[in-house]
Amino acid sequence: MANDMLTNAQMRDIEALLHPYTNAATHRQVGAHLIERGHGCHVWDDSGKRYIEGMAGLWCASLGFGDEELIEAAREQLGKLPYYHLFGGRTHEPAIELAEKIKELYPQPMARVFYCSSGSEANDTQVKLIWYMMNALGKPQKKKIISRRKAYHGVTLVAASMTGLPLNHGSFDLPFDFVKHTTTPHYWREARDGETEEQFSARLAADLDTLIEAEGPDTVAAFISEPVMGAGGVIVPPKGYFEAIAPVLRKHDVLWIDDEVICGFGRTGNWFGAETLNMQPTSASMAKQLTGSYVPLSAVAINQQMADVIEAESARHPALGHGFTYGGHPLGCAVGVKAIEIYQKRDILRHVRQIAPVFQARLRQYADHPLVGEARGVGLMGALELSPDRKSAATFKAPGKVGARLMSELLKHGVILRAIGDSLAFCPPMIITEDGVEEIFAPMEAALDATYSWAK
Ligand code: PLP
Fold it and tell me: Which residues contact 417 (CB under 8 A, 6 or more apart)?
């Protein structure tokens, strides 16, 4: 039975929608939160209440809400060519220009860009292109993909398999068998007593090596990693992690997919997280900040070796049998070109580098609160992981409840953040100012205290 305190819109929502990442029974009781409009780093709900968006939506609105230049770029493109596709050799200028920019900005040489609409589609595409490539190379058995526990790569069947979170597997008959998961690079939670960050990294690289050896190196095609795990709880890898992983992948001739869906386009203070975290990928997925999320668009960038093999293989068939109706949508590409132009001309990366230390210092002020296990982050992303005992990195008896409570305390104070289990995630628009950072953190002490008393 629905709650009779709900508004008409909430009732209609309950009857009309199946909500992603929402508990349907709870939703029926509490109703939806209706967001009506946004401007800068703020959104307003249907009661007129204003919120600071400390998560940029879903790690998305890098340039905030209502950026006139992005809106104008969309309007102009809609007037000129509102839809077209890239099938059968057709093209359009925004698709070419955006691909050129991606190639120019990515830290490793990339040869070709393939467009999709979402991060999940991009990651599924990665696997399909790699399988296509392995078949072309006469290595049909080299198909397994290694991901990591707590990784997030999306929700389509293969992407969800690569995601390393039980929520995305349970009742969905996932993960697929060809996907294997290795250890999470979370030093605070996973390191052994007395182990340094470097020793921990070396141990995780050894875990990966052991897994590849056990599976058989000639059956393992690729390793996929986010530079910083986002939806797994903003887990920043320890010192030396990717430096230790790289030689293992090289030794076994395993490709490396870089999932930049959150980190790409400035979030960590460089254009791509691969630069900040020193990764050596062979291909990369990007979305979200690619267009500031005003229009759905994602992209897969592949290196020269992959491009050569895939192009040659496509010539053996009538065509490359893969592509999406909306992949490379001119609206998305035009807005993407404009978003990159804005990042460059407003020097958003410099702004991120200036504001990130303020944000990170503010976040770490709560590291000693009795409810906080760890305060962590890099650039303009971070998390406060709640724990009943910091020293042992203990988890709560009923996981997720305390995090959800803290999130709703902050909502009362006009701050939107996201609880990922018992980690409170932060990812504000990259245009946030010191005042905006202050607005996010101003109610934090009171909200933590109230949640702590409730949890006791
Ligand atoms: N990869 C990463 C790192 C993500 O954070 C996400 C979404 O949050 C995805 C992939 C999936 O993207 P989408 O939700 O657009 O399918």
Answer: 54, 55, 407, 410, 424, 425, 426, 440
The full DSSP string for 162-198 is HS--GGGTTTTT-S-TTEEEE----HHHHPPTT--HH
Question: Measured between alpha carbons, how far is 306 from 320 in angstroms, rounded to an integer?
Answer: 14
What span, in angstroms and rounded, lies between the C-alpha atoms of 6 and 414? 20
User: With 70 as the cut, is the pLDDT of residue 1 above it?
Assistant: no
Distance CA 253, CA 36 (A): 50
pLDDT at 3: 72
**Does the predicted model carry a pTM greater than 0.90?**
yes
Residue nearest to atom 13 of ligand 1 (CA): 119
How many CA atoms are closer than 13 Å to the CA of 13, on its beta-carbon side?
19
Residue 293: name the closest of 81, 70, 34, 45 by CA: 70
State residue 78's pLDDT score.
98
Is there a cis peptide before residue 175, judged by omega within 30 degrees of 0? yes
Q: Does 176 have pLDDT greater than 90?
A: yes
Assess contact for 146 and 126: CB atoms under 8 A. Answer: no
Task: Say how many Å lie between the CA of residue 120 and the centre of ligand 1.
Answer: 6
Distance CA 356, CA 340 (A): 20
Q: Is 152 in the pocket of ligand 1 (CB under 6 A)?
A: yes
What tens digit of pLDDT does each residue of 357-375 get? 999 999 999 999 999 999 9
Tokens 């009781």 belong to which residue? 29
What's the pLDDT at 2?
A: 53
Q: What are 20-40's pLDDT values in tens digits?
A: 999 999 999 999 999 999 999
For ligand 1, mutation pick of 152, 263, 290, 427 (most atoms within 8 Å of CB)? 152
In this structure, are residues 156 and 163 in contact, taking their beta carbons and an 8 Å threshold?
A: no
pLDDT given for residue 4 in this prediction = 76
The set of residues, in sequence order, having a beta carbon less than 8 Å from that of 383 and lying 6+ positions away, is: 233, 234, 235, 374, 375, 376, 377, 420, 423, 424, 425, 426
| Residue 391 CB contacts under 8 Å (≥ 6 apart), including other chains | none
**C-alpha–C-alpha distance, residues 184 and 148, integer Å:** 6
Return the H-helix or E-strand segment holding 442.
Answer: none
Q: What's the distance, Cα to Cα, between the start and end of the chain in Å?
A: 31
pLDDT digits (tens, 9 = 90+) for 82-132: 999 999 999 999 999 999 999 999 999 999 999 999 999 999 999 999 999
The protein residue with its alpha carbon nearest to ligand 1, atom 10, reads: 153
Q: CA 98: distance to chain centroid? A: 20
Average pLDDT over residues 298-316: 98
Please give the angle made by the CA atoms of 118, 101 and 105, to the nearest 5 degrees. Answer: 95
